[in-house]
From TrEMBL:
Residues 111-130 are annotated as: Disordered. Pfam families: Penicillinase_R. GO terms for biological process: negative regulation of DNA-templated transcription. Belongs to the BlaI transcriptional regulatory family. One of its GO terms (molecular function) is DNA binding. This is BlaI/MecI/CopY family transcriptional regulator.
Amino acid sequence: MVRRDHLERAVLESLWDHPKGLTAQEVVDLLADRQLALTTVHTVLDRLRAKDMVLRERDGRVYRHRAVQSREELTAQAMLSVLQDSADHRLALSMFVRSVSAADADALRQALDEPQAGSKTSRLGRRRRP
């Protein structure tokens, strides 16, 4: 049996690869190796919509579905969620930074040095430091 979170992730991957959106049938076709029923894909898309992860737009007689967030935004949101669960944010961040590659550490430094587009709230809805 396929785990629901794995199936949701596979559907999201399909949507990320097709930013203009996909119909449920197109998702079924793209995930043909999984042999999914159309009703299963509809259910997964409905669940993702309920989680505000997918938008549905009418396109003639069918609906097109698009991911609300990019892969990177969803990854950042997951990282923030894990950090918020930590009892000691500073220690968790310190340990994280020590465990990343030199290239990733450089990318973090560069991201921290970038100007913050005038907003104190990130795209992920968290308050940024002043």
